[in-house]
Amino acid sequence: MATHSLPSAALATGVLLTIAACTPAVTPTVLNTAFSIPETAVADQLGDQLVFADRMGTAQLAPLLAPLDVDGTPATRLETGDVAYWPKGLRIVVFLSEGAAVPGDELVVIGHVSEGLDDFLGCDRKCVVNLGGADR
């Protein structure tokens, strides 16, 4: 078995490699979207604004600062437009397609998009939904 070694001069010579990553600033997109969340106590916990980001075209996710106090049975099936709370991920999820829920994710449906679901389709990052009004 042959072994190879580098000359000692090569070992002493260091190469400094610097990689600079620059993410261009993303201007927030305010969506003309409304949620229907029947439980007022849950709606009140969401605050005035949620900022969503796309998850591979199947859902939009918005981070939360604190857990929600939500009662409900984890969903086994989700419909297009469902608004769910994901306690493990501390996120609100808007589903852009229907399908079976991933077991163990414990998604609890808290409402539905009542208008403007299509606005989510063209938005990748910083998709702002202003909450408020009677329907939320």
Per-chain topology:
Blueprint: H1 8-12, E1 29-30, E2 34-36, H2 40-45, E3 49-55, E4 59-63, E5 77-78, E6 82-86, E7 91-95, E8 99-100, E9 108-115, H3 117-121, E10 127-130
Parallel strand pairs: 1-10
Antiparallel strand pairs: 2-9, 3-4, 3-10, 4-7, 5-8, 6-7, 6-9
Question: TL;DR of this structure?
Answer:
This protein is mainly β and 136 residues long. The chain has helices at 8-12, 40-45, 117-121, and strands at 29-30, 34-36, 49-55, 59-63, 77-78, 82-86, 91-95, 99-100, 108-115, 127-130.
What does it look like?
The chain has 136 residues and is mainly beta. The chain has a single domain, classed as Cyclophilin (Beta Barrel). 12% of the residues lie in helices and 32% in strands. The chain contains 3 helices and 10 strands, in the order αββαβββββββαβ. The chain has helices spanning 8-12, 40-45, 117-121, and strands at 29-30, 34-36, 49-55, 59-63, 77-78, 82-86, 91-95, 99-100, 108-115, 127-130. The strands form 2 sheets. It has an 8-stranded mixed β-sheet. A two-stranded antiparallel ribbon has the order 5-8. A hairpin with a 4-residue loop joins strand 6 (82-86) and strand 7 (91-95). The longest helix is centred in the first third of the chain and has 6 residues, at 40-45. The protein is globular. Mean pLDDT is 77; it is low at 8-12 and 17-24.
